[in-house]
Amino acid sequence: MTSIDEAALGRPATSDAAADVLRGHIRDIQDWPQPGVVFKDITPLLATPAAFGVVIGALVDIARQRGATTIAGIEARGFLLAAPVADRLGAGLVPIRKQGKLPGPVRSATYDLEYGTATIEIHADAVRPDERVLLVDDVLATGGTAAAAHGLLAGVGAEVVGLTVLMELSFLPGRERVAPLDVVPLLTI
Ligand code: AMP
Question: Which residues form the Phosphoribosyltransferase domain (predicted)?
């Protein structure tokens, strides 16, 4: 049952448990893939079934709260989260992939990286207009990837009900870049 405090926060109780689990199962890798970056490695989480289950359960709660009918995952680590969430929810799964991977007709979005650009794609017929899509990824950093994914989903007619991530790096402007998309992190760093 949801208590008044939890309702006031607008978050399921499992989110707090998930934040604790993440603190214990995410490994910081210094200076990877380049100097100055602290990479948030989720492989210890993936390797620990009980911990992974708590985190997936929290993401499912968020998806239910927002009435999501479809889960969209961003390649590659977003897939590892989006697939079990969609399965537990009984929702459809839409992959947003790096350029050149999807076999059917696609729509593309290109966005700036620190050095150069990146392109992601979605199947043009991936969603129907009445679908409520929750976007899922592991980390929200500068927000470029999520903003591009949001644009792709909106472009194919989806109603995007939010972006949920395991970790939001709050010292970077990701949240502003994806605005007005509702961002729901399990853990804010
Ligand atoms: P951004 O577009 O800058 O928000 O970067 C988000 C994407 O890059 C996500 O798909 C993440 O998987 C990945 N990413 C960015 N920064 C990190 C980090 N410090 N640790 C792990 N993954 C990251």
Answer: 45-167
d(CA 24, CA 21): 5
Q: How far is the CA of 13 from the centre of ligand 1 (A)?
A: 26
**Are the beta carbons of 172 and 179 closer than 8 angstroms?**
no
Nearest alpha-carbon partner for 122 in 141, 106, 109: 106
156: amino acid identity, one letter: V
Task: Please name the residue whose Cα sits nearest to atom 19 of ligand 1.
Answer: 39
Q: Is 40 in the pocket of ligand 1 (CB under 6 A)?
A: yes
Please, what is the average pLDDT of the chain?
Answer: 93
Ligand 1 centroid to residue 156 C-alpha, Å: 24
Q: Are 163 and 82 spatial neighbours (Cβ–Cβ below 8 Å)?
A: no
Q: How does pLDDT run across 24-76, given as a tens digit for each residue?
A: 999 999 999 999 999 999 999 999 999 999 999 999 999 999 999 999 999 99
Q: Exposure of 50 by Cβ count < 10 A (0-12 exposed, 13-18 middle, 19+ buried)?
A: exposed
Residues 6+ apart with CB under 8 A from 61: 12, 14, 15
All domains of the chain, ordered by start, with CATH?
59-188 (3.40.50.2020)
